[in-house]
Every structure is written in structure tokens, then in C-alpha cells.
């Protein structure tokens, strides 16, 4: 079927209507090939006309000359329980020069499910009227998969939300950058977002979407928070939802799970980029030994054609928790939570060993040598080796974040800072400027420490520091692996910090290749200091800085021997013994420089 120019009157409309259909099944789709070519060929759209609904629902639309070629269109109809027609409308505003054509219209999976003679098994559901046998995971998911509605009978409304009457028991996060918007029909921006909701499949239905136009900018986030659910250990809680990610600049949709109230939570699932103009179903199986919440997080891309929609969110094998999640402790890293000390006679200048109550001098705390039998003097200190595989920071902490307010610190989403990452969490294209594998396991599942250059501004710094180290030995050094690859990588520095005074010990700038590189920083004898890793952001997002496998080698202070020094050893002024070969070698081996005295 094709259209040629037939007059020059203003606002010509040519309509081609389908026969009337009585209803469709939940997986119904229609596809066709179209041709829209010419200097001023005009727009075309496919509309859904449902009996009893005055306003048509736009299903598909093109605006411009598509070139001298046939192109395929795909439309989701879904479950339509009432009689309807499709109308293909060709619009020309005055001057019309071109050819529009349609061919090979195909309806697929549009019949109601076939009846079954029997339907056995715990994972099957037998529809009461149509006698269809469907998967149990399709029950109470806000979609009439049976064709008679019986799979949606007797469902708990507290475990479902189709947004037809608001947000149900979900809430907008108060610590994100903007809110999800409840919407009917198309989103305001062309070539992005849904034309219709998923529940009703018409302009009358509601869904939530994330607007990607100004004033919102790249990496801004909108977060929707679920009610609190009871722990689910023996049987997984199942979360079903539908998402729509259509547009050239669609960025990311994530689902997270949290068990404490003031955190972002653990990533369960994510999807990046344009997924086509369609609603997609996703099912997640959730296990938790504690009460938990689900967070649905949409992230803005780098343009206005990045709208994301969500609809028909439901849970099964879950129950609501009567209470709130506890907050996380906000005690700064590097400080200790007050504990009940054993009976002791220690002074203020001494550390109390937690198990025995013995006293050691405070300079022996955090010196890389356990002096207490229970090693409690090294418990909250910098670790000799850290590979981040247990997803902890090994005592390293970010002082700048702790100086923020409690809320800003926990929800600092758009701050240039250090964080844990892994190759498995990278989005397409990010591997060009971030490590796709860690250094410890050499897999995408291994963890490393990195700064995300997609946030922040040129020249901003991110510092992460050890707790205060009381004393180190003369051969102490820090060895670590770093990854700096990308067109706009900034700098990485290692600093020594005493109070508010910092001294640069090591620095590296610019791309070092797509590989992990070893670095060694000599520390030597130092006291009452911190080691600081400082990342400086480059001019754009193409240059994350990462480190892994940080080790402190030979850092324990020297011990005064319980014997005289041998003839092969030199007796330092502080009574330490060192090999005579270490004399006058420009290294402070004695820790008091007596081995470098020119009068030896």
C-alpha cells in the first residue's frame, strides 16, 4: 500500500485502518516494513483505537525522510482485553513531495494462551476459565497472562504497584538529585521514552519515567525506594518489573538492595544504553538474612534523548516488615568505637591490650608489629596487605567526606572520590578508561580502589588516607599496583601527612597504558604520620585512576636486642644492631642516623 501526492490542500491526512480485533494476549506484537522517502515526505504514525476510549494511543511515529530504503517497525501491543483497531495515519502539511508505503504487516503471539488438559507441578498455574497452564512466576505480576484475569486474583496489593493511583507504598528518595515523574502517554521529548504505559497499553495508563532534559545533567540520579521487607532466607523473594530504555543517550538503570537505611546499598542488577522502543520484563531473585529495601535508580546520560520508564512492579514470596531499617554507624574510619576496657593500670601514654589488660607504650600501637597477645594494638590500623577482595577499605578513609554533614557524606553521589569497583560493573565503553580486571585475581569479579572521573571537575582532588602510623623501620616501603589509562587521565600522588602538613613522596601523571603497573614508595623511618593517596581529576571523564594490592613491606620498627651486638654488627647510638655493611650507605638504618655519622 502506498501514497502519492493527490492535492495541495493544507494538512492532508491519509488513513489506513485495520479490521477490528476482539482482544489480544499478553505477548502480542505487530511488525511491518515502511518506506518514507522524498524531499518533503512528511510524518506518519500508527495509532491504537480502543472501543470506549475517545483518545487514540500513538504506537509508532516517524517525522522525516528516511532515505530510499525499506525499514522495519516493531510495536508492542500486549494484553488488550477490549475490541480495537489500528490506524496508520500519513500527515502532510501543505507541500508534499515523496512516497510513503507499508508492506508485510505481521501479528505475532497475539492469541490467548491455549487450554491445557492438565497442569501439574509447583512451578505451574492453571487458569480457571481459559484452562491455560502458565509459569507460576507470571502470577500476580499485574499482567493478565491467562486471558481471563484469574492469575491476578487474590493478590496482595501491598506487593504490587502499576502507578495507576500514585506510587502505592513506594517513595521518592529524598537524597537523590531529582524525582521520578508519573506520566500518561508519550514523554515530552521526541525519539525517547515510552508512548504508553505497560499496564493498560493505552494513553490512559500511567507509568513512571525519568526526564533527561535540562536542568538535569550527566550522572544525576533519580531513586525510588520500596517498603521494607522481612528477611527471606529459605525461599527467595522475587521482584518483577518492566522497564523502557529508548533513546540514543539513554544511560543506566540499576536495582539495589540495602539493609541499613542511610546507604545506597548493594547492586543487584543494571542495564546500560538504548534497548529499543519497547517494555522489557525483568525478574530478580533476592535473598537476605536481614530486613531490606529495594532501590530503583535511574541515571542521566549526556543528552536529552535519554528518558527511562518503569512500570508494573510486583513481589512474590515476600512479606512486609513492620518497622524501619536501622541506620549505619557513622563513626569515622580510623577512629575506634568506645569499648569496655579490661581492668588495668595503664597511663594515658599507654595502650591497653584488649584481652589481657597489659600496657604497651602508645608508640607501639599501629607500628606493623603486634605487641599485644591478641594483636589488638594493630586492629584499627593500616593493614600490611590490602587487595579489597572482601569489599572493605582495610582502614583507609576519606577525611574530606567525613568533614561533610552526615547526610552529605553518605549520599555524596556526585563528588569526585575514591570507591570500590570491578570490571563486571563497567558499562559499555568504560573499559577504554577503567580496568576491566583487577590485579589480585585478574578477573572482572575482582575488586580494586578507584576514582570515578565521570563526576567532579577538572583539577579536583580525592584523598584517601591510612590511620596514623606511630613508627616505621628504616627499610619501610609501600608497594602498590596502579592503573592509569585513558585520553584524559589526571594524576596520582602518594603523600606523607603529619597533622596538616603533607610531603609528596611519589607522583605519576597521564595515561600509562591499559595495564596494571607496579609502584614502590620508600618510607623509611617516620613517626606519627599518615600515607595519603591523592587522585587529581583530568579534563574529562575518560580517565579513571585505580590502585590495587597495596602492601607495606619491612615496616616494623627495629627491636633492641637482648644481647650485645656481634663483631659483624654496628652498635647504634640507640642500642640497635645493624650489619656493618650498612654503614655510610646514605640510608638511616639505625633510625637515629648514627650509622651515617661522618665521625664513625
TrEMBL record:
* The entry's keywords: Disulfide bond, Repeat
Per the UniProt entry, the signal peptide is none
Q: Which PROSITE patterns match?
A: LDLRA_1, LDLRA_2, MAM_2
Question: Quick one: a GO cellular component term?
Answer: membrane
- Entries under InterPro entries matching the protein: ConA-like_dom_sf, LDL_receptor-like_sf, LDLR_class-A_CS, LDrepeatLR_classA_rpt, MAM_dom, MAM_domain-containing
The disulfide bonds in this chain are 140-155, 366-381, 565-577, 572-590
What residue ranges carry the coiled-coil annotation? none
Q: Which residues does the UniProt record annotate as the domain MAM?
A: 1-112, 159-320, 384-557
Q: Which SUPFAM superfamilies match?
A: Concanavalin A-like lectins/glucanases (SSF49899), LDL receptor-like module (SSF57424)
Q: Does the keyword Repeat apply?
A: yes
Indicate what this protein is called per its UniProt record: MALR1 protein
Q: Which organism is it from?
A: Nothoprocta pentlandii
